[in-house]
Amino acid sequence: MFPRRDTCDKSMIGIPKITFSYAYSMDTTPDLLSLRIVRAISEHGTISEAARVLGYSQPALSQHLTRAQSRLGLALVVRSGRGVRLTEAGRALASHAVTVLNAVDAASAELAELAGLSSGTVRIAAFPTASSTLVPRLIRQLRQQHPNLTVNYVEAEPPQALQLLRDGSADLAITFSYPEDRADPHLSRDGSHTTVPLFTEPVVLVLPDTHPLAKADSVSLADLANDAWIAGCALCRGHLLALCNIEGFAPEIGLETDNALAVLSFVSRGLGVALLPQLALSSLTLPEGVSIHAPQPSSERTIQYVIQPGATRIPSVATTIATLTALGGDVWGLKDYPAQG
């Protein structure tokens, strides 16, 4: 089930109270859902967050955990401050969960291939700009070519999309990264995911057309050291700070939004200047009062997809990847925005 938000986030509600009965033989073989639950609790620290990422209501997850603890004859979680922590038994179970669940997923994928299944489900997570550009084209293509394939989609910035992938709540994440970003969430050393580039896109400078540099062919960021800046998401903000640092100044950021249309609206009213990836402009009509320029130094970002190791053995994921990579650059909706001068 795809992750959903609960109506409340009371992490201490529903922590199972355990009464063990030994009138029967204990079964110390954990079920798959229990493995997923303890792994999620290990990563997130609360019952409510574990329920959210797994796509269950908190009461349903707590009830399953209570039954699992009674059947195993061991407590798996205990209260700890405002959250919960795993007991020694819970930690032991969590330490094996990733290996076991990956093996089960791989086995399921092989069986699906052998069975020649023509249907399935793929869960995709992607960043906001992709929601209005890449994702609609991808989903339309999948539905036209594979009508029996169910496609679920959730919007998430790259760090959150990668977390959904790690949690097992998404099968494929479409993300972006900037070069030499030391905080790049894709830099995994544990082999927990595989990143495959799709294309790179330029980052452009957006100025009010009343700006003194609005008629320039290209604009040095250093010449904008005294301007007010508009920043985007955490990754985009970090990229802006890094570029400005290279030019020897720290930008004065007064407005922040990851909504490209809002950025253009702010700029058109002379409220600041901004950097925007070209993809963010591809589905928008530029408002009056805005000019687009090539910044100096130039910059770009990489659009990519991310999967867990072995995911290509799952037919629905393999089909989605094939469709995604087959879409050429001309169908991504990218427009050519030359510097205005």
What report would you give on this structure?
The chain is α/β, with parallel strands linked by helices and 341 residues long. The chain has helices spanning 32-44, 47-54, 58-72, 88-115, 128-131, 134-145, 158-167, 234-246, 260-268, 278-281, 315-326, and strands spanning 77-80, 83-86, 120-126, 149-155, 172-177, 194-208, 218-220, 228-231, 252-256, 273-277, 290-296, 300-307. It folds into three domains: 1-116, Winged helix-like DNA-binding domain superfamily/Winged helix DNA-binding domain (Arc Repressor Mutant, subunit A); 120-198 and 303-331, 3-Layer(aba) Sandwich (D-Maltodextrin-Binding Protein, domain 2), CATH 3.40.190; 199-301, D-Maltodextrin-Binding Protein, domain 2 (3-Layer(aba) Sandwich), CATH 3.40.190.290. It contains eleven helices and twelve strands. A hairpin with a 2-residue loop joins β1 (77-80) and β2 (83-86).
Walk me through the topology.
Blueprint: H1 32-44, H2 47-54, H3 58-72, E1 77-80, E2 83-86, H4 88-115, E3 120-126, H5 128-131, H6 134-145, E4 149-155, H7 158-167, E5 172-177, E6 194-208, E7 218-220, E8 228-231, H8 234-246, E9 252-256, H9 260-268, E10 273-277, H10 278-281, E11 290-296, E12 300-307, H11 315-326
Parallel strand pairs: 3-4, 3-5, 7-11, 8-9, 8-10
Antiparallel strand pairs: 1-2, 5-12, 6-10, 6-11, 6-12
Quick gist of this model?
It comes from Salinibacterium amurskyense. With 341 residues, this protein is an alpha/beta fold.
CATH superfamily of the largest domain: Winged helix-like DNA-binding domain superfamily/Winged helix DNA-binding domain
Give the CATH level 1 class of the largest domain. Answer: Mainly Alpha
Which radius of gyration do the C-alpha atoms yield?
A: 24 Å
Low-confidence stretches: 1-13, 18-24, 335-341
Share in helix: 25-40%
Shape descriptor: elongated
Number of helices: 11
Distance between the termini: 51 Å
* N-to-C series of helices and strands: HHHEEHEHHEHEEEEHEHEHEEH
What's the CATH topology label of the largest domain? Arc Repressor Mutant, subunit A
Strand content: 15-25%
Total of domains: 3
Helix/strand-derived category reads: alpha/beta
- The count of DSSP E runs of length 2 or more, i.e. the number of strands, is 12
**Whole-number mean pLDDT:** 84
Largest sheet: 10 strands, mixed
CATH architecture verdict of the largest domain? Orthogonal Bundle
